[in-house]
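Page 42, continued from yesterday. The earlier attempt failed because a stray header line got pasted into the input along with the sequence. Redoing it now with the clean sequence only.
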Amino acid sequence: IVSTDFDFILDSDPNAQESFRYVERARKEMPDKRTNELFADAYVFEVVYAGEDGGEKKVEIWANCDFGSIREASPYAWHLARAIGQQPAFLRESLKHVVLHSGDETAFAEESSGFFVIYAENMDTRLANHDLQETVFHESAHVALEAAHAQAEGWVAAQEADVGFITRYAERLPAKEDVPESAIFAWVVLNHPGRLPAEVEALVREVMPNRLSYLGGIEGFVVTTDGGAGEDG
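This time it went through. Structure tokens are written below.
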């Protein structure tokens, strides 16, 4: 996804974020590609988003204290909070917290526990390339969709019926990466027709029509209220 020049999610898209605050310093379970240590001290930020039916959704961001200070960690937590706020509500509702480390490793999800892990220097690259929202979508889709759908009979049948994969990454790891890779293309095509180049949208419909139909049938995937599906100007 991030190797393309496509803006799947625009900076101007609506944002459900309502508040952002530092809560405390606490010991947290924070998987990290850089070390075998599972626990670390974290700066804990709480972000509140507008939820379904007028409620609210809280997501914590745990920033590793190896940032050195709250002042150093806060801008990264803020950018991450904003990106989460621009995700489809059904992805955000499945997210419990996010682990934020310094360093330049790639993001990964712990879908069974409802969180993903991201690194600050990699975020710098994603921000420079306007890809942070897409990275958050991908990892959130692992959390929200993988366990329920990646091995589901209907999804496997849709994979087999379609003529190919929408990205090489999905093709290389079909049991793990096809759901999130397909999901972001499907979400844009179904909710924002015209946002992707016409030839790309046509390719999505040609390559993965059965997966497109499957994903569109997931509750909350297609937005039908005001501010939802429609052509981008």
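Notes: The chain is about 40% helix and 20% strand.
Reminder to self: strip header lines before submitting.
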